[in-house]
Amino acid sequence: MARRKLKNKNIRKISSMGNHSLGLTIPIEILRELKWREKQKVIVKKRGRGLIVVDWPVKKSD
Q1: Is the Cβ–Cβ distance between 29 and 20 less than 8 Å?
Q2: How confident is the model over 15-42, as pLDDT tens digits?
Q3: Is residue 19 situated within a structural domain?
Q4: Count of the separate structural domains present in the chain
């Protein structure tokens, strides 16, 4: 598969993942910047016509 041109590196397609789910890949540069890892929990919220994805809050033990 050919690499994307630099101006298009953040353009992604939504893909089918099984019968009832869709998935979206996130550019590795963004994941590294946020220090997110595989299988990390995140929260997805709908805002207007877009989505907000934020890190799962860590519970602080007393």
Answers
A1: no
A2: 999 999 999 999 888 999 999 999 999 9
A3: no
A4: 1
